[in-house]
Design brief:
61% of the residues lie in helices and 0% in strands. The protein has helices at residues 4-15, 41-50, 53-57, 76-93, 98-107, 116-126, 133-144, 155-162, 173-196, 207-213, 217-232, 242-260, 263-285, 292-295, 298-301, 303-313, 316-327. The radius of gyration is 22 Å and the shape is flat.
């Protein structure tokens, strides 16, 4: 009887595009491991990411709005799940490897900072070597997880994580699906959050954008996926058709002007910058106060790099807690005479 993995290989051979990255053709891992009889290597990567600590912390990391009070605002975790769903839909439509696309999508933001892209900009200024969340996500899976052992993911998944920003080009079409899915996801759910927060109104989006993309999140996402399918099916690339691409970019510019760089967002970013800067300087001067797993990395990577590792790993609430623990005086009570 054939193993489940062998059956998966046969399905891929029969139905995948000639441009897909088939599971049996993976370039492998940095450290060789005994293969799993049931799961392909990309399926194993997906499972490792889901069960790692960095993935769990995404639920309390900001997407756009710092520590939102409502239950329905997008977090870094729900953004990641959105990207995974859209990337899998694109991969399925183009007869590509859904497992690879899913693994990349689930891991693409593991290295993101607290306080969203504001936190990323702040650490980029503080770190002597700069800070980019995609590079940090690779560092998480290669070095930081499992107390320095890393997750030992396949090269294809690590490439897709590293190269998911719009300015870069992943080596696989599945990685390119994730790159496009990331942009589709964040401009749409960030728009929904901005409307929920009262920063924008539903009819405030320019009509030339909604005429192409649609008026609801569902319409916009369907439009984007359909545009990729029409343009890319059977081709050795993944991209949208020109009208939808232009409208999507116009929506992105609109969001930067009205939401991401709004006076309200900038005001909160100044607070986050003061807090993260003070915390960074404290740990630079008090490396012994870091958790032991981070102290163990200092000799190899230097204290500036490791302090950024620690700060970027924090959730929003833990960053605030750490700042308060270090810098805010604790109250005290006078014991009575029988104390």
């Amino acid at each position: 009887m054939k193993s489940l993995k062998e059956r998966t290989y046969e399905i891929e051979d029969a139905f995948f595009s000639p441009y897909a990255c088939k599971s049996k053709d993976t370039s492998g891992r940095e450290r060789e491991e005994t293969p799993c009889g049931m799961r392909t290597e990309f399926q194993r990567d997906r499972d490792r990411i889901i069960y790692c600590k960095a993935f769990r912390r995404l639920k309390n990391k900001t997407q756009v709005f710092f520590s939102p009070e409502g239950d329905h605002y997008i977090t870094r975790l729900t953004h990641t799940l959105d990207v995974s769903q859209i990337a899998r839909s694109l991969a399925r439509a183009l007869s590509l490897n859904e497992d690879l696309a899913e693994a990349i999508a689930l891991g693409h933001d593991l290295g993101h900072t607290p306080f969203g892209h504001s936190g990323e900009r702040i650490l980029d200024k503080l770190s002597p070597t700069g800070f980019k969340h995609n590079e940090q996500s690779v560092r998480v899976v290669e070095v930081l997880e499992k107390d320095g052992a890393g997750l030992n993911l396949t090269r294809e998944v690590r490439d897709g994580i590293l190269n998911h920003p719009q300015s870069r080009t992943p080596a696989t079409l599945e990685g390119r699906c994730v790159s496009i899915a990331d942009r589709i996801a964040y401009i749409n759910h960030d728009l929904d959050d901005a409307i929920r927060a009262g920063i924008l109104t539903a009819d405030g989006v320019p009509k030339e954008i909604t005429a192409v993309l649609g008026n609801t999140s569902r319409e916009r996402i369907n439009t984007a996926i359909s545009a990729v399918y029409r343009t890319s099916y059977g081709k050795n690339y993944v991209k949208m058709d020109e009208p939808v691409l232009k409208a999507s970019e116009a929506l992105r510019v609109f969001m930067f002007e009205k939401v991401y760089f709004s006076d309200n967002a900038r005001g909160e970013e100044e607070k986050a910058e003061r807090m993260l800067t003070a915390t960074y300087e404290y740990f630079i001067n008090n490396c012994h106060a870091l958790p032991q797993s981070f102290i163990n990395l200092i000799d190899e990577y230097g204290k500036e790099r490791v302090v950024c590792d620690y700060l970027s790993s924090m959730t929003d609430r833990y960053a605030v807690y750490t700042f308060n623990r270090i810098f805010v005086p604790k109250g005290w009570t006078l014991l009575d005479e029988n104390g």
